Amino acid sequence: MKKTEITAGVDHGKCLPEAQLEQKMTETVEPFLGQIRQAGRMTETEPASGTYAPGSPSGLYYELYPQENAKGTIVISFGFTESCLKYHELIWYFYREGYQAAVIDHRGHGKSFREVEDPSLVHVDRFSRYVKDMHKFVHELVMPMAQKGPLFLFAHSMGGCVGAIYLEQYPTDFDRAILNAPMLGLNLGGCPPWAARILCDAKIAAGKGKERLFTQAPFDPQEPFEGCAAGSLARHLYYLGQRRADAAYQTSSATYYWGREAINSGKFAIQSSSAERVRIPVLLFQAELDTLVSPKAHETFLSRIPDGQLAVVRGARHEIYRSPNEILEPYLEEIFRFYAGNEKADDAPTGSSEAEA
């Protein structure tokens, strides 16, 4: 397993200026993305485990960002309580570098359907549903857009666990994959996973599986920066403002069903019989200041796949893609270096440069 370190450097102005982030996002990035975005709804692969919540939208919301002569297509699998909207800045950087992007709101997130009435709760009875939804999205919507060009995965946190299992079950779909602080093992604050699992099982057996995990809380419209997963205050405040304005983005805590599945799925993803099925190069980013996921689980997973690289990002919190610019710039450079490794130097296509800050 190859291991590298990414350290903070000088802000060369390649990312949106943090002092003007909201202005740049509002006046430049969002209008541009809005012009090229192809948004829609896809029917989920399996029926919901229960009934749809009253007022819930149907199906799964998705966004596609096509580009002529693209270097490749990047599929985003986002993390727990996140949404397509949260990734618009990152999609901007992908597009500006010449890549198409595609992202879907996982069930129970963003503009996709809900099975529980409380908009702050994330619920799913089996993580395999996330994987099957994503497989359908890739085959029915992303691959036609990619037109047999390189297909890449960018999967963060919970989405990283979903992404790892996807690579194990469908090993030929992607050419390269980035797992960004993947949730392959939870940091449970000293509580053994088996004890947390017993608690979740007991609640589910008592008919309380769709209730909020006792360790978590409803959406906080004043979420303090000190305890959040982003390293950039400007990026934290910008998305928090969007969450305040729309209940669809106010997911903040899990049900006991989700908790059980998070423990089980991480364990499943890193076991030898699963991990050894991965066939493509994988770059796993690990945040030095991460308090949410287990670095040991990362290393176990990488030791069991044929071609794995570890990149430790010094000074970064869990959401590395929302770091300060001095960390974000070298991190993005490493992302693009890795994805470019799948291209031949003599015939790599040139992407669009329309998207400029």
Characteristic key phrases:
nine-stranded mixed β-sheet, single chain, globular, two-stranded parallel sheet, 11 strands, 357 residues, Rossmann fold, alpha/beta, 15% strand
Structural notes for this entry:
This protein has helices at 21-36, 88-96, 128-146, 158-169, 193-205, 233-245, 256-270, 272-275, 295-304, 325-340, and strands at 2-6, 38-42, 60-65, 72-77, 99-104, 121-122, 151-156, 176-180, 253-254, 282-287, 308-313. The chain has 357 residues and is of the alpha/beta class. The chain has a single domain, classed as Rossmann fold. The strands form 2 sheets. A 9-stranded mixed beta sheet has the order 1-11-10-8-7-4-5-3-2, with helices on both faces. Helix 9 (295-304) links the parallel strand 10 (282-287) and strand 11. It starts with a strand and ends in a 17-residue tail after the last helix.
Short summary:
The protein has 10 helices and 11 strands.
- SS-based class: alpha/beta
* Total domains: 1
* Average pLDDT reading: 93
> Which range does the strand content fall in?
15-25%
How many β strands by DSSP? 11
Give the overall shape, derived from the CA principal axes: globular
Radius of gyration: 19 Å
CATH superfamily heading:
Alpha/Beta hydrolase fold, catalytic domain
The name of the CATH architecture is 3-Layer(aba) Sandwich
Helix/strand layout:
Layout: E1 2-6, H1 21-36, E2 38-42, E3 60-65, E4 72-77, H2 88-96, E5 99-104, E6 121-122, H3 128-146, E7 151-156, H4 158-169, E8 176-180, H5 193-205, H6 233-245, E9 253-254, H7 256-270, H8 272-275, E10 282-287, H9 295-304, E11 308-313, H10 325-340
Parallel strand pairs: 1-11, 4-5, 4-7, 6-9, 7-8, 8-10, 10-11
Antiparallel strand pairs: 2-3, 3-5
